Amino acid sequence: MQLFKKERMWRKCDLKPSYDVVIVGAGVHGLATAYYLGSRHGVRSVALLEKAYLGSGNSGRNTAIIRSNYRTPEGIPFYQASVKLYEELARELGWNMLFSQCGHLTLGHTDSAVNGLRVRAENNQVLGVDSRMIFPDEIRRLVPAMELSDRPRFPILAALYHPPGGIIRHDAVVWGYARACDRMGIEIHTFTEVTGMRVENGKVRSVLTNRGEVAAGAVVNATAGWSSSISKMAGVPLQIVSHPLQACVTEPLKPFLDKVIVSATLHVYVNQTDKGELVIGAEIDPYQSYSMKGTLPTLEQMATYTLELFPQLHGVRVLRQWAGVCDMTPDFAPIIGVAPEVENFYMDVGWGTYGFKTGPIAGKSVAELIARGETPQLIAPFSPARFKAGQLLGEKAAAAVSA
């Protein structure tokens, strides 16, 4: 007796000769753009092109941390809007995202670091984000396992506590969006690599792929790592460099950590999954590369600094190590909007180490821009024209570590 009917998450489709919108990159940003085009604006002649399997890029290689305690008046409302969408995403898509808003602590180890956290806390509170300074007594109550004595080289003086922050199952987000897109007739084409674009009279006329040429009314670059290569095909230069970002996961342990812990001074962040594994991440590698492999020096760095925070973890085994490729802009803020050089080429790129946090609101905003032809106020500060105008944002203070 069959109790459950088997159902495909998304269909396999033949590539059509033309679409209203072609989205390059079927990670969370590309999928969210397609979903909101279809669900909010009725645009369903959409093709998502992914060069490998779904979730093979940074959407499946991040550490799945969600937060909005950034620093700038442009960034804070944007990230807050994304958190709000994430909070309702499981209900909207009818798919369990395993979202745990367990709380997020950014540690301050020096006087200057504490002053920086205080500025962030004040900016967050002014703009309606739940974020406040806490000190060792309260930190000890929240994270009793953490080393809070004065013995470490960098003792913990204070922390920025952000209760709505947490972790989500990144695969579930990708699958949920993909399933919803498929049910609207939006096509997902995996193992379809973009090899070039035909640009005529300031517009992209078609996209060249390893499966043939596709005409497009609009083209969206929603890639990570290789975003500058894709934009170059359209004749659009980007102020971006790509760096690997490494992370690892340990063997399962009994639950002892129910908060996300971040230290910009130590360049490390740690959280524990529902399975008991510790997910540990580092700062971006200091060299430019497209490598997705882990390295021993970075693993040693992650282990060393994790043990400064949790010395009792010595002897715990690391099971897996991996890397994503992060596109870094000069001001550590994204590039979202239509290219000045090509009128139907849209970009949602340059997310550096924090793109997964913003997938829902970035996709919703780009979909609105395409459908209505007007730039939503929320993404106006991230325009690609800001570099030429000298209007950089400076978000590094809140994004120097990938959490």
What is shown here, in short?
The protein is an alpha/beta fold. The chain is built from nine helices and 18 strands. Strand 14 and strand 15 form a beta hairpin.
What are the salient characteristics of this protein?
single chain, 403 residues, alpha/beta, FAD/NAD(P)-binding domain, eight-stranded mixed β-sheet, 18 strands
* SSE run: EHEEHEHEHEEHEEEEHEEEEHEEEHH
Q: Roughly what is the average pLDDT, rounded to an integer?
A: 93
Question: Whole-number radius of gyration?
Answer: 21 Å
- The helix tally amounts to 9
CATH class of the largest domain: Alpha Beta
Uncertain regions spanning at least 5 consecutive residues: none
Number of strands: 18
CATH superfamily of the largest domain: FAD/NAD(P)-binding domain
Number of domains: 2
Secondary-structure content class: alpha/beta
Report the portion of residues in β strands. 25-35%
CATH architecture of the largest domain: 3-Layer(bba) Sandwich
Shape: globular
Largest sheet: 8 strands, mixed
CATH level 3 topology of the largest domain: FAD/NAD(P)-binding domain
User: How far is the first residue's CA from the last residue's CA?
Assistant: 47 Å
**What is the helix content?**
25-40%
Give an account of the 3D structure.
By secondary structure, the chain is an alpha/beta fold. The chain has two domains: 18-63 and 170-239 and 330-398, FAD/NAD(P)-binding domain; 101-165 and 242-328, D-Amino Acid Oxidase, Chain A, domain 2 (2-Layer Sandwich). The chain has helices at residues 28-41, 75-93, 111-126, 136-142, 170-183, 227-233, 296-309, 359-372, 386-389, and strands at 18-24, 46-49, 65-66, 104-108, 132-134, 158-162, 166-167, 187-189, 194-200, 203-209, 212-221, 241-250, 260-263, 268-272, 278-284, 318-328, 335-338, 345-349. The strands form three sheets. Strands 1, 2, 8, 9, 10, 11, 17 and 18 form an eight-stranded mixed beta sheet that branches. The chain has an eight-stranded mixed beta sheet with strand order 5-6-4-13-14-15-12-16, sandwiched between helices. A two-stranded antiparallel sheet has the order 3-7. The mean pLDDT is 93.
